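User: Fold this; tokens only.

Assistant: Input:
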Amino acid sequence: PPASAAPTIVMVVPNGYGLGHVTRLLAIARVLKAERDARIVFWSFSRAAGLIARFGFEVYARQTARHLSAEPKAWQAWETAEFAALLRRLLPDLVLQDAATLDDFVIDALVQPGTGAARLALLRRGMWQKHILGTDPLAAETLADLIIEPGDLAAPADHGLTRGRASAPRRLAATIVSAPVTLNRPAERMDRKRARKALGLGRGRHCLITLGSDAFNDWTHLLRELTRQAQSARIKLVWAHSPLAAPEPLIAQTPGITALATSPLAP
């Protein structure tokens, strides 16, 4: 919309294994709120809907067909109707989805009567491997007004399907490769003293361990080895895990380890 207008934007968050989709959209939402006074409404299938709310944004917590054990076709029709109802209430300027591809319910809802004339943008990563995703998801890109691919520190090593697509003719969709997207702002980074206080750490040396989402299926051997090494070096372990992950009983039962589910962790 014109620079003088405060836009309304709906952000669609898929159900991922971690917090990548949520983190990217929150980073963008914070900037749009600060610079354009945008009203941001999240339509979230991620179980991190509570994290979105803590950042002060409106959020609708949704359930996938898999979450509900629902018949996919019936779920698709229901989700289309619900999303179309949201569009009729808000009449947004933009719908932005962070995913590998655009969901059918998003496209189907946008063409329903009375849903307005929102632009459609897809935020999707590079680094695609053909044997995992194939080429079919890329076909939906032609339905968007804009494709955004966040830059990556490993971009020179990207030999996947999306590499070079930004310079190819895209028909209706414009494609841009942005700078890397990060939620952590330099001004929010803490010094050692503030960070220790925020994490509730006492005196002594600590080692922060974070292995990402579902990095290992069996933690037993890893925990025992890390604990043994830490004890011999007189280091206390702080085990950071995703707020989406279930509590790990073995960590709670192991002396000298503090479990931590803080998000975002970067500051």
